[in-house]
Amino acid sequence: MAITEMAELSAILKLTDEEKAWNPDGANTLPLLISDDVEELLDIPAIRRQFVPSGKENDDTTCSLDPQEEKEHQGTERLVHRYRNRAAFFTTDRCFAYCRHCFRRRFTGHLSGPATTREIEEAAAYIREHDEIREVLLTGGDLFTLSDEKIDQMLSIFKKECPAVILRLCTRSVAVYPERITENLIEIIKKHMTGAPFFLMTQFNHGAELTEKAVHAVSLFIDSGIPAYNQSVLLKGVNDDEKTLIELSDRLLMARIKPYYLFQGDPVRGTEHLRVSIERGLEIEKNIRKELSGLGMPQYTADLPQGGGKVILTHTYYRGHTIENGKDRYLFDTPDGETRYYPE
Ligand SMILES: *Cc1c(COP(=O)(O)O)cnc(C)c1O
Ligand code: SF4
């Protein structure tokens, strides 16, 4: 049985004062929900920090609850159209376990529930009418908290209205509740594999989350012809060191999952204690790039406030352009800290 009360947690963990201080009815927070699979990993500090609430969530008075101003970019009730050629559909507000770093906490777990048929149809019609939209993220919350029947219906509607649009299946279920990925669910998805492809978008933040069960769940998608990409969040005390991130990338690649993004934690109120400075993030990015292949390297990315959009954060190797003896030369740092000139 999933854990939903602090009393249940205190029976299995020695809670710290900070954890005990959490107020479920206080400001800026989202519900406590820890799945059985996550419970098995709670001894690992990097897992505990992601799922056990802290009083610091309530105390945080910095930032906004909706820094991306998603509300300002709504196409329909549940559809955010912030980039010209892609949009995000909030399939539900529910998850199998709530992450304490959740950046969509103004919405997540707040009982608006699954999208209604009308909301799905409205979103699909909006996408059909905006033919610049090439990709739609089916996100939330977690898409796979919906019933098989609801998922079948949703995919039917999107595939009928906009068959040429790529659908990204965004889920943390493979990490926190891999049992959800049943043969039946995969059969339903396969039935809709017409037109544009599906992509699976996972969220693993630490190598320990890639359990045998989790890797198996992802393999069911990949073996069906759906490529898998991972989006991690850079989190203080979870994965803000080079060794942890390199190991995460190695384990992802071994599971055939391409590390796609490493997100800078969004400035969402209630998550300050989990954020890493951009300066430290850039240092980590530079260091892990030296150790990882191109396949293993995620893009360190920040989602700018006020709907500014995502930008890649990277150490820059290009130092400038000079002219010598009438010839152009470009100056670069090498990853090992030397310099090189690149002739025009
Ligand atoms: C992140 C995001 C996307 C997808 O962006 P990519 O860079 O293509 O992964 C689309 N819509 C919204 C609202 C987003 O936040
Ligand atoms: S799975 Fe995603 S939406 Fe759900 S709590 Fe975690 S970060 Fe938020």
Describe what you observe in this structure.
- With 344 residues, this protein is α/β, with parallel strands linked by helices.
- 31% of the residues lie in helices and 21% in strands.
- It has 12 helices and 13 strands.
- It has helices at residues 6-12, 17-20, 36-39, 45-51, 55-59, 117-129, 148-161, 173-176, 183-191, 212-223, 242-254, 278-291, and strands at 74-76, 79-83, 86-90, 135-139, 166-171, 198-202, 228-234, 257-264, 299-304, 309-312, 318-324, 327-333, 339-343.
- It has a 10-stranded mixed beta sheet with strand order 1-2-3-4-5-6-7-8-9-10. It has a 3-stranded antiparallel beta sheet with strand order 11-12-13, with no helix packed on it.
- Helix 11 (242-254) links the parallel strand 7 (228-234) and strand 8.
- Helix 6 (117-129) runs parallel beside helix 7 (148-161) and helix 7 runs parallel beside helix 9.
- The mean pLDDT is 95.
- The site of iron/sulfur cluster has 10 residues, from loops.
